[in-house]
Request: fold
Amino acid sequence: MDVIHTDVLVIGGGLAGLRAALGARKRGQKVIILSLVPPKRSHSAAAQGGMQASLGNTAKGAGDNEDIHFEDTVRGSDWGADQEVARMFVHTAPKAVRELAAWGVPWNRVQAGPRDVIIDSQRVTLTEPEAAHGLITARDFGGTKKWRTCYVSDGTGHAMLYAVSDRTIAEGIPVHERMEAVSLIHDGERCYGAIVRNLISGKLLAYVARATCIATGGFGRIYQSTTNAVINEGIGAAIALETGVVPLANMEAVQFHPTAIFPAGILVTEGCRGDGGLLRDVDGHRFMPDYEPEKKELASRDVVSRRMEAHIRSGKGASNRFGEHLWLDITLLGEAHINGKLREVKEICQHFLGIDPAKQWIPVRPAQHYSMGGIRTDAHGAARGLSGLFACGEAACWDLHGFNRLGGNSVAETVVAGMIVGEAIADFCATPEGDMHVSTALVRDCREQENARFADIATSRGQESASVLMQRMQAIMSEKVGIVRNGDDLTVAVDELKNLLLRSRQIGLRSSAPGANPELTTAWRVQKMLKLALCVAYGALQRSESRGAHFREDYPRRDDAQWLKRTLAFWRDPEQRVPTLEYENLDVRHMELPPGWRG
Amino acid sequence: MISILRRKNDTQPTRRLCIQVLRHNPADAASVPHLQAFEIAEAEGMTLFIALNEIRATQDPSLQFDFVCRAGICGSCAMLIDGRPGLACRTLTRDLGTTITLAPLPFFELIGDLSVNTGKWMRGTSERLQTWIHSSAQTDLDALEAPMEPELAEAIYELDRCIECGCCIAGCGTAQMREKFVGAVGLNKIARFRLDPRDDRSNDDFYELIGDDDGVFGCMSLLGCHDVCPKQLPLQTQIAYLRRKMAVIGLA
Ligand SMILES: Cc1cc2nc3c(=O)[nH]c(=O)nc-3n(C[C@H](O)[C@H](O)[C@H](O)COP(=O)(O)OP(=O)(O)OC[C@H]3O[C@@H](n4cnc5c(N)ncnc54)[C@H](O)[C@@H]3O)c2cc1C
Reply:
């Protein structure tokens, strides 16, 4: 049997995984990273707008500090966040930006002197301080009191991912590409690594490790309309769930981004609105001030997305043959600004819509964007339920974002969490617990079990089609577990998803190509994705309140008396058809910022 | 005036597309490279991403290809589209004829059908050219960052925008003849780090890496790379500039 041994196995080559790997490597651990794709193609590369850190270098960032960033983050989360984590995060984010600068990220810089910007559709002249010339600059993003989002044009995630990935090459950390972790090796108490499928040959291998870290990103592809990459299928979270002992937290907390181009779902960054872009309706009317007189287009994402959907429902949507949408107008920013600071947006508009955003409005509609929920960990990334298992980045829920994440806080989270969790992994490896006594029988059994699962699908005579089930799941999620939810729709959704889960055991393949047959891969994944979809839908059905991005029209208010709680979803019995939900209270006595009005 | 989507004339009938794919599965001993044709109905706004996924879902589930971001950002889906290297995800079928021929990028290891192993090649090139900031300076993460001129930061980003898709290699005359040629992707990276003041390396150090025929002197200035780069990087000027700088070192 093919067995690979290492100290630390990092599953995921996005920003979070790479940064955690670097931390553990620096402390002398042998590290291997697994990735579905070459690491630079991870979805972190798609982050456009920027990374929040309270450097306070600019005129509009003056006076910014960790405290204000903390408050913005907690308010944004609608008090769902773990405030201890939020504190640590805001404290570390400036360090992370500077570390990235040292590794080569070409952050945009402050140009001293006067400059024209658009604020609230007015041209305004700002004067940047002489002393700040050449320091890292920042732009405005939704839900923040200061301009705090550091950026590299609108290719921030790309520049960050390339710098961090190049760093791992410099440190000689191997990345095993086109490898998919398909289950965790564990005995119910300790994790010993993962069973991994080679996506070229289709063969299964065992990676045995003292510490395993899941950094597999979000699961947006359980939705039909999403800004996420096609590889964001949440398998990392699903294999943790399938251990039966590791819970997924707050899975119902799903973020929808206001400005995905319609209908393709490709994101155009919040930076468009941060830099002064406006939302308009069928009449060309700028409608956001009618609903949110203070923050307008730059209210929290969940708020803007809901307002947009409501505005469309009120009959004010524009339409094309794919359906209804609204307009994003950045023409007022001018060609020079668009060519310099919003060039990815420009390319996307050219290639996918055939329009020039300096002259024409962009058709947009909210789409699934971010998974606040994920593998429940402590404040240092140790997963609940299995010793030796860690998680970080979008796949994890150490709970920085609660029920709504602020734009720019996610790429910041990936590197900050990587810094903190990488250290925690190294600490763990240095303790007696970090030593490992693993039985070869256990490793073999885990692999055999997985082999059998793939063989079952490959040889099944079932009549169900994997792609049909996948599409149906995605449609249900977008239609019934979307931006505006209610008990009736959610009940229907849960029932249908349960049914799809049963049907997914009857998938038959049409092709038997040698190697990693893509049809087999999809068939195997859809079973896992359905479990995640059920965690989201069932969690949303049970939570009879509205908080952050989880909006129930039948319970439109936040209900702290009942629901100042984090949802934990377990899948203890492989035969169960909905997750077992438990709740943990958020302790108000330990909150630096007690629940209040979000503003 | 409200602008609208560029739209096909409604009276125009839907086109039938014939998509020919060069297929081969190296994992299958019986497989021989061959063109296979698929017919589909064109839809409005259809990209090759949409078309290929439709073919896989409805006609041939074994078809192999790579898409990740499907937004022209990640560089996964480069292939030969009617013979020319490009990103399939952002290629609209309406810009092509009714018969479209797709083949894998040449030069890279074939995984199957349209999927090639660019990642392995890029990692190897990165290791060879040491494409990371070399600095002996200790960074104090609690101190103000070192300032940089705003234009310089922008100029570095201009070269940092490479997405390692491999189109430049597929479009390169030298790469077809010299297996070890680092290509425009490699040379552009050297230009990027050379421009970056945070990197301590000197021209002499860079010469060690690219001062031969597998590096900057291998380029025949055919500029295939420049024409096909989906990010429109200024490859032509960068390579020419680098060659002049390196030639000076070579002569010294
Ligand atoms: C279009 C878009 C724009 C965004 N813009 C911003 C922004 O401007 N600012 C901001 O703060 N945030 C932004 N975000 C969010 C942010 O980019 C992501 O949350 C973040 O990059 C996730 O990083 P990650 O490292 O956790 O995961 P990812 O970057 O998604 O990486 C996941 C990795 O895991 C690997 N993987 C997955 N499953 C497996 C498996 N089973 N086995 C092995 N490997 C596996 C993948 O290959 C990949 O390498 C944006 C998100 C999107 C979708």
Q: What stands out?
A: The longest helix of chain A spans residues 518-542. Residues 560 and 595 of chain A are 8 Å apart (CA to CA). The mean pLDDT of chain A is 96.
